[in-house]
Amino acid sequence: MTSPHLKGSQPVFRGQGLTRPRCISLLGAPVFAVVVALGSHLSPVLGYVFALLALVMIVVALHMESVWPTQSRQEHALVFTLFWGTMLGGVVPFIVAAFREGGLSAVMSIFTS
User: Fold this and answer.
1) 17 near 71, Cβ under 8 Å?
2) What are the φ and ψ backbone dihedral angles of 70, each rounded to 5 degrees?
3) CA-to-CA distance for 100 and 96, rounded, in angstroms?
4) Cβ–Cβ under 8 Å, residues 89 and 35
């Protein structure tokens, strides 16, 4: 006998299930990811600015609850685009490059140092 709140991926509260983001958000994130990736490779100053933007967007997106839309609340298109664009264009390539150079121990050292 299991509780209905513990079954599968059913949300505890109604309207909190994840939904598909709007098209503008889904198009904006990869476009901005390309801008972040190219800008980071072109200039160290731009890379630094995009890294700071990624940190700010983590805080903003979590505060506004716009990381991913739910059934009861749509994402904010600009926040979604900037958050996922900086993650996909700046953070993910950095982690992949660290993994290619030093394996899992190099990735773990990013988070432990």
Assistant:
1) yes
2) -120, 175
3) 6
4) yes
Contact 83, 31 (CB under 8 A): no
Cβ atoms within 10 Å of 103's Cβ, excluding its own: 10
Interatomic CA distance for residues 20 and 11, integer angstroms: 16
Residue 2: exposure state from Cβ atoms within 10 A (0-12, 13-18, ≥19)? exposed
Read off the pLDDT of residues 42-97 as tens digits, 9 standing for 90 and up: 999 999 999 999 999 999 988 888 788 888 888 889 999 999 999 999 989 989 99
Alpha helix segments (H runs only) across the chain: 23-42, 44-64, 77-86, 92-112
- 79 touches 57 (CB < 8 A): yes
C-alpha count within 13 angstroms, C-beta hemisphere, residue 60: 17
User: Is the distance from CB of 94 to CB of 107 less than 8 angstroms?
Assistant: no
Tell me the longest C-alpha to C-alpha distance in the chain. Answer: 59
Residue whose structure tokens are 């990811």:
33
